[in-house]
Amino acid sequence: MKKLRLSVFFLLVLSIVAGSADRSDASIFPAGTVAPLQQGIAGESIHEAPVVRGLPEMSATPGPMHVQGMQICAAAAVRTEEKAEGDEEAGNVSDPMESLNAPEAEGAEETDVSDDLESDYLPEEGEEQPTVTISDPLEPFNRAMYHFNDKLYFWLLKPVGQAYGKVVPEPARISVRNFFSNLAFPFRFLSCLLQADFRGVATETGRFTVNTIWGIGGFLDASSSRELNIPKQDVDLGQTLGVYGVGHGFYFVWPVFGPSSLRDSADIVGGFFLDPVNYLNPWYTPAAVHGYEAVNETSLTIGDYEALKGAAIDPYVSIRDAFVQYRKKKIDARKVKMEHSGSVETQKK
Amino acid sequence: MIEKILKFTTIVFLILFLISGTAAAGGLFGPPQPLSRKDGGLNTAIGYAHHENKFENGEEYVIRQKQIYSQAAWGASNLWEVYGRIGIADLEIDDAFRSSGSTTSSRLDFEDRENIFGALGAKVFYPFRKTLGIGIFIQGSYFFSDFRDNVSGISNGRFYTTELKVKNLWDIESGIGLQAVGPCGIKLYAGPYVYYSEADVSPSRSIAGLRLAAGEGTIKNRREAGGFAGILVPLGKGFHLNMEGRYSEKFSAGIAVSYTYQNRRP
């Protein structure tokens, strides 16, 4: 009986982790899955800059989640080295970042916008750097949750992910990731719709259609081929609220879900209703599926969280600051895109 | 010379399309030349086929299927390819419950909804000119579950109801195709093929006087050979449209849209 309870608990934990992993970037660095930081955050000072010991070694073939972790690490390294050694060192670090752009930024048709978004803002000498902060009134609780998530990753997800990764070859694991990413289409579709990004809506629909039909149910990502080049929209519900001017609220670390904020917690609620897996029967099937998804994702991103954690004196603060800046960057990028498309429409008229 | 061959191929293609049809359950044969990229790679397709044929077990039955399938293929050098398909297809058998003597039946035809089938195939191509080539293929398919239908009526003055199962429906097909490449990369192909297909029939209760439900047995195709012809049109960006017709005793036709993956190079 105890074993059964334990198993159910683990399955639930895994399901929640996985359930949030693909739908939203806002709440995904729970147990080790580090929230993506789209761009280098050089130039943006934070109130408690973590000390970074070094840049983790870059993998030759990074996957999306792998990329996310490295982005956050690279960003942290850029930030620190800028302070310590100047722009030259920071430039070295930014090279690998060029190949780690978010899928949305890879779209050829959006070159103009993405060029603006991708260029790291480097303040001139003497210029005051913008400060990005978030209120953290629940810090003791958040720190406790951070440690809980940390242990969850190191004690459960990582060992299981490592064993799984040894048995299942990487192409197969990437196919599984593609499948779940394709399944999260309703989430991205609705987010684009709520942002009135109708081009994004069309892109997501086309992407879902192509990948479902010619990608064998989504296991293959035909849309990302050079010929088709239908980029995945980097959107979520928290970002949508941010685009409409809703502030962070306060910082909150969800058990299992990881870093989030009052606003970005909308992803958790939205994800529950928009993830088709949650509608499977019997009741434990979604938990099992999400658990598998979490293990698969972890197997592809092992090392990212460790690199981030090892590079900072206080990983809690590092992750919090990186999270806030990442979310800000993501929302700003979206605003710029919308403004750009709006101005194009106006010019057409 | 090439023009003559093209004309000949076009005529054969049109004749086969206008007169003919047929086939079995595994989907389109496709062009003899594989779609995978020259240096090896994957292509996928979605297809729809309407299939008709004549089966027999003492008496003749026309069977009809509508198939939808998804295909994944791997090949290289534009010379060989292996592929797998998974799809669904329904089944109709005309006059399966036609009664005779004192037996009556509530309906005539056997009908059941879609069941899942799988197919495997391979093809090899040999180009003997820049625009001409010949290929050989083999493919087989199998339905993983039984088709079922119920019928009721009166036999020898007593009411009856019985369920007829069509089990283990499978087929194997092999053929040779001649292919010509026309303008804009359009490929025309045609050729003969041989095939064999069969299924077991099993009524839950044997009813004398009901054709297929009179007892357990096996139905199989009446003829073993036919012809096929098709056209493959490049749609751009790696997509191709394939239309094909087959004929042995009845006409069958299908359409598929395929996508060829581009190999990513570091």
Which helices and strands appear, and what pairs or packs with what?
The complex is a heterodimer of chains A (349) and B (266).
Chain A: H1 2-21, H2 64-85, H3 87-98, H4 111-118, H5 139-167, H6 170-183, H7 185-194, H8 198-213, H9 237-243, E1 251-254, E2 258-261, H10 266-274, H11 284-301, H12 304-311, H13 315-348
Antiparallel strand pairs in A: 1-2
Chain B: H1 2-19, E1 41-56, E2 60-76, E3 80-93, E4 110-127, E5 132-143, E6 147-155, E7 158-181, E8 187-203, E9 217-221, E10 225-236, E11 239-247, E12 251-260
Antiparallel strand pairs in B: 1-2, 1-9, 1-12, 2-3, 3-4, 4-5, 5-7, 6-7, 7-8, 8-9, 8-10, 10-11, 11-12
Task: Outline the structure in words.
The complex is a heterodimer of chains A (349) and B (266). Chain A is an all-alpha fold. Chain A has a domain at 138-343. In chain A, 59% of the residues lie in helices and 2% in strands. Chain A contains 13 helices and two strands. Chain A has helices at residues 2-21, 64-85, 87-98, 111-118, 139-167, 170-183, 185-194, 198-213, 237-243, 266-274, 284-301, 304-311, 315-348; strands at 251-254, 258-261. In chain A, strands 1-2 form a two-stranded antiparallel ribbon. In chain A, helix 6 packs across helix 11 and helix 9 (237-243) packs across helix 13. The radius of gyration of chain A is 19 Å and the shape is globular. Chain A starts with a helix and ends with a helix. The model of chain A is unreliable at 6-123 (pLDDT under 50). Chain B is mainly beta and 266 residues long. Chain B has a single domain, classed as Porin (Beta Barrel). Chain B is 7% helix and 61% strand. Chain B has one helix at 2-19; strands spanning 41-56, 60-76, 80-93, 110-127, 132-143, 147-155, 158-181, 187-203, 217-221, 225-236, 239-247, 251-260. The radius of gyration of chain B is 21 Å and the shape is elongated. Residues 12-24 of chain B have low confidence and may be disordered. Chain A: Belongs to the MlaA family. Chain A: Keywords: Lipoprotein, Signal.
